Amino acid sequence: MPELCRFLGITIQMYFDDHNPPHFHAIYNEYESVFCLDPLEHKEGNLPPRLIGLVFEWAEQHKSELLDNWNLLASEGKYRKIKPLV
Q1: Res 30: pLDDT
Q2: Which residues contact 3 (CB under 8 A, 6 or more apart)?
Q3: How far apart are CA 69 and CA 12, in angstroms?
Q4: Which of 24, 33, 65, 68 is most exposed by smallest CB count within 10 Å?
Q5: Phi, psi (rounded to 5 degrees) for 57
Q6: Whose CA is closest to 58, among 3, 10, 2, 19?
Q7: Rounded to a whole number, what is the distance in angstroms from the first to the last CA of the chain?
Q8: Does pTM top 0.90 for this prediction?
């Protein structure tokens, strides 16, 4: 699973050829959650609320890059790294 970004100990990943709707995985130690991209929402998982907020803040800043990566992974199996939360 490609790592798109890492910030504050949170890893953001997407699977190759994953199912729709477009989404990404946020992992922090033993916690993991899935976030849909359109609309941006916490779909499932057990990340603590404070970390969910940080992931939302980051995802809002990089939504178009996340969608571009979703399409690149699906069509070409490639991806681009995304800058961390600032």
Answers
A1: 98
A2: 11, 12, 13
A3: 12
A4: 68
A5: -60, -45
A6: 10
A7: 24
A8: yes
